[in-house]
Amino acid sequence: MKRIHLSCFVLVCILFQSISIYSQNRAIDSLENVLKTYQKQDTIRVNTLNYLAFYNYRNNPPQAIAYNEEALNLAKTLNATKFIAHSYYIRAVVYTEQVNFEVAIKNYNKALEVYNSINDLNGLKKCNNGLGVLHQYRGNYNLALKHFKETLSISEQLGDNSNKHSYLYNIGNVYSDTGEYQKALENFKLALEHNIKNRDSLGMLNCYNSIANVYYQQSNYPLALNYHNQSLDIAQKSKDSIGIFQSLINLGNLYRFQGLNDKALSYYNRAHAIDNAKYNVKNITALKNNIAGIYYDNDELDKAITYFKESIVLSKEIDDKVNLATALNGLGFVYFQRKDYETALSYFDQALNINLKINQSYDLMDSYHGLADTYYRLKTYDLALENAQKLADSSEKHGLLRHKKNAYGLLSDIYGKTRNYKKAFESHQQYKILNDSIFNEDNIEKMTQLEYEYKYKQALDSASIRELKLTKTVQATSQDLQKSKRNYLWAIICVLLVSIILGSIIFSQRLKNEKSKTQNVVMEQKLLRSQMTPHFIFNSLSVLQGMILNKEEKKSIQYLSKFSKLLRITLENSRDKMVSLSQELLAIQNYLTLQNLENDTFNCTILVDEAIDVTLFEVPPMLIQPFVENAIEHAFKDQTDNKRIDIKLAYTNKKLLCTIADNGIGIDSATKSENKNKSSLATVITAERLAVLSKDYNMEGSVTIEDRKKFDEQGTLVTLVIPHKIIAIS
Q1: What is the spatial distance between Cα 348 and Cα 692, in angstroms, rounded to a whole number?
Q2: I need a labelling partner for 600 at 20 to 30 A (CA). Which of 293, 360, 616, 718 fits?
Q3: For all residues of the chain together, what is the average pLDDT?
Q4: Residues whose CB is less than 8 angstroms from the CB of residue 13 and which lie 6 or more positions away in sequence, other chains included
Q5: pTM, entire model
Q6: DSSP for 116-160?
Q7: What distance lies between CA 296 and its chain's CA centroid?
Q8: Coil, strand, or helix at residue 550?
Q9: Which UniProt keywords apply (predicted)?
Q10: Strands 655-662, 716-722: pairing kind
Q11: How many CB atoms are located within 10 Å of the residue 680 CB?
């Protein structure tokens, strides 16, 4: 029996972009600080928790699950549908990395259900891609292909081509695993074009590896070697330890298949020495299968059994059907070699059942070959014939000459034993044709490979020579510059240093000026607000003093109670730069109530436009009250009844307008009767505050005071344009 060369390829699936350890740790520290300082229970906190879960999902899974659990519970409390779906998605990613596929699938399905309910195509896209990776990892290629194609379709619906290369790459991997090599190459090469254009080293590395594996499966070793070397070169330049690991294993597979076991084992040992790869159990499982294959080839069967059984244990732990089937086939061939045919049959049958489910073409043909050969040795010729014919049909379908040659060799032997000499002769003739073809192909491949290796080494030598020449040229140029242009060089350095110093000084001065301006604005705001609060308190205490002097005990006690409540609100509002509009209106209502206790002869209304949600608007405190106070103090001289003050708020053209209208004597009459040089301190302060606030918020703020006689009405009209903020609803 010609030895069957067992092979296993490292599956590379892109789910997330790789993140360096340094930048990842910085991101975690930054997010944890945000979490400590930001105590609001809102969607910002949900997002922060989920980001922390994502950053921890590889290195600290228990912490990742804890963050995600808190995020999901908070999202449910807030009834934030989109955030609930995203939390389920993050949870699925965490459990996929932990190889807990059942829990991962449940969470993906929950996320899909919620995203479907709100027709969120981006959410559906990422869930389908994640499920495709998961099912491909488990060896369920039909489901994987379905989800990857759905991902690509949604991406095209959205007109988003940013990750199209990743989806094409994933689809290519599925076609490669199911033996549809032409389709696989088409998808890989489209993805590679995009990666080269965008200088994506990780994407290029994965595509080169995958294209090489397709050529490997088709026995085109020179092309496979070319692409694997390109992959290894990129991985080494980008210091990608996992990429180096994958390339070394693939190169080892390539040399082992050509019978160069010592060279193959050296590559496997280099891969095994990479510590970072040990965290991915699937990688270690594949490597154990490869090393076991070397020992099988070298007739060290006990060692081969040990490694295959270790691979089986690990494969079952992570539900890795692909490597499990490879290991089972390997044990079948080992026990066949030992002539323990019943044990061999048991392992081949187990491998066959798995390969039929996952449609893994290469290992499936190994199972057919093993079963056919074993049944032939047991003289069960009908079953031997059945499996040999399946091997022939499958190898014909996938264009694999070596398997096809093995199939016709077995068919010739079986037909000979069953006395069907005509078919035995036809099968033997076909076997000879295939054997000659493979012999010629092997010779051509060996020559091509030697030529490629020679050219590759020659290219490396040429590069080294060019590098040496360039180094010498640089050294000579440096020496010349040191001798003839040293002064000129120092002059340039001095000019640059002076420019840098001057630039730094100018920049520093500008920065200080900007800081000074900002501090002046803040100080001016605080000063004006601090002036406003004592002014109001002085007026209120004056009224209270009058009541006490007039011995109005009941009224003064009631006034004092109302005044204390109003004072508390006023002091709280004065402490903040911005307060809720609802809080400001409450302060005005309390003030009016307090004023009516003294003289219950005026009516006041506060009307707020329906377009204004007073809980969402924030305004500077103590802007409206001074003008209401002026109206009460000065508008109604010699007017004993029908005193009226109307306060209205409207929101038009992104301006918050407040009007205070009274039906008193009017501003013109009041000005004539009083000292023209005297103006209300509160009015002056408020006008100054509005000027400062306008600059601070880059928003119009102004006050206009008009006599209503110009509108054929009685009284004064104050119009305030108030700088404001609107709180966004999350």
Answers
A1: 85
A2: 718
A3: 80
A4: 133, 136, 137, 170, 173
A5: 0.40
A6: HHTT-HHHHHHHHHHHHHHHHHHT-HHHHHHHHHHHHHHHHHHT-
A7: 44
A8: coil
A9: Membrane, Signal, TPR repeat, Transmembrane, Transmembrane helix
A10: antiparallel
A11: 17
